[in-house]
Amino acid sequence: MAFRKDFLWGGACAANQFEGAWNVDGKGISVPDLCTNGTKRNPKCITTEIRENRFYPSHEAIDFYHHYKEDIALFAEMGFRVFRTSINWTRIYPTGMEEEPNEKGLVFYENVFKECKKYGIEPLVTLSHYEMPYALVEKYNGWADRNVIALFEKYCYTVFDRYQNLVKYWLTFNEINGGVTPLGTTLSLSTVRGYEGPVADAPVSPQVRFEALHHQLLASAKVVAYAHEHYPQFQMGDMNVFLTAYPLTCDPEDVLAAQKHNHVINWFCSDVQIRGEYPSYMKRYFKEQGICLEISEEEKEILKRGTVDFYTCSYYMSSCITTHEGEATVEGNLAGGAKNPYLQASDWGWQIDPDGLRYSLNEIYERYRIPIMVVENGLGARDEKAEDGQIHDSYRIDYLRRHIEAMYEATEDGVDLMGYTPWGCIDLVSASTGEMAKRYGFIYVNKFDDGTGDLSREKKDSFDWYKNVIATNGQCL
Ligand code: BGP
After folding, report:
1. Of 137, 143, 237, 327, which has fewest CB within 10 angstroms of its CB?
2. Which EC class is this protein assigned (predicted)?
């Protein structure tokens, strides 16, 4: 069994969940900097001021800002060919509204990308991963206001220009469809304020949510078109959370309900970003939901011109859709829906479904016929040290092995798969709960939810396992 020779094996992280250094070298306040941590039952919340006695997970996170050399060396030791990370907008433009960028912020990412290149690791950069300058939330209610589009463009053009010789692969918005999930009203912050929930905050109406999403889709198309025009060497991608949904039964009503669910949740944004126009099923959905979107001819042109070169998604779980009442629902599964009796779930309720990955990759490829990369996948687990002081994370190896096997089967089915970057390749702060206890990494970081820990790094069993997977190009699992 073998993946293609140039298969991009690597790992993924995001600025706000691992950099720390939230207020150094001129960085401005970003939305996650105002989020406290939380738990499954007691969601994190967003505050409008920083208080001394509160714990804000993003403030120190795992301090990649000061450990990047050590961490990239470990990624290189595993044989990474690609490293997915994001740029924190507030390091470049602290409030989003300055005329000139912050040089120290630009230098930081330059150093990170150079360090990657030193080891032959290709950076894959997300321009917006669940963060935005808080100043833009205060002034504009974030993406709800179309003025933010031009500010985002300015930021993107600055980093394109600066890193044009270091970065080839770019993604515009992380999980751009996150705000249309069943938890949409709580996840709406991802769309309006650029941050993933659920957080305890006032819900945003569907009208505002879809307007904000429209602004993000326009912003994405604009920067993609600009990149194609000015930097032909760039490869531009979208990024979706793919939440595979099956009909719970063979009742045709369940099948139709699942199709409708998939349209809105899984296909809408990528249809716009790849086919260059709003799909017709959304017109019906908007009508049913009482949402009115004014899309001008000029905007339609923008969407047409700014289509992406490759498709990317995160994949963690699947769900079931039914019209029947009284079916058990899955608690914690971000996809919501009914419980699938054939699947097991993680400690956080995410239903584990490797076959669903093979199925989804086939569906995606048949629809778009462009290269695909799985840029997030993994098992969030509570890692405990054994008596020998090591982390024996066989459960993580088992999860990843089954998903890599599924990806391989998809390539055998004919899917053009270009790479795989498991999420949180080094332990970091959880996006949904703000916890450190939910760990994904091959590398353990000594840092805990009460803020203690010396931040030292240690290899888990999965480190050597993944190293061997990459060395054998996926043959030895
Ligand atoms: C995705 C996000 C990531 C990441 C991951 C795992 O939705 O893009 O930022 O956090 O999920 O989620 P969590 O951290 O909530 O376990």
Report:
1. 327
2. hydrolase
Please check the confidence at residue 201 and state whether its pLDDT lies above 60.
no
Residue 454 alpha carbon to ligand 1 centre in Å: 24
Residue type, 120: G
Please tell me the distance from the alpha carbon of residue 98 to that of residue 315, in angstroms, as a whole number: 36
Distance CA 62, CA 385 (A): 19
pLDDT for 38: 66
The predicted pLDDT at position 173 comes to 95
Distance (Å, whole) CA 477 – CA 470: 9
Q: What is the ipTM of this complex?
A: 0.98
Q: Which of 196, 377, 438 to mutate to test the pocket of ligand 1 (most atoms within 8 A of CB)?
A: 196
Nearest to 28 by CA among 107, 128, 84, 97: 97
Alpha-carbon gap, residue 418 to 304, rounded angstroms: 24
Please report the domains of the chain, with CATH numbers, ordered by start residue. 8-471 (3.20.20.80)
Please say whether the beta carbons of 239 and 126 come within 8 A. Answer: yes
Question: According to the model, what pLDDT value does residue 184 have?
Answer: 43
Rounded to the nearest angstrom, the distance between the alpha carbon of 430 and the centre of ligand 1 is 6
Does residue 289 register a pLDDT over 70?
yes
Point out the residues that are catalytic.
175, 376
pTM score of the predicted model? 0.96
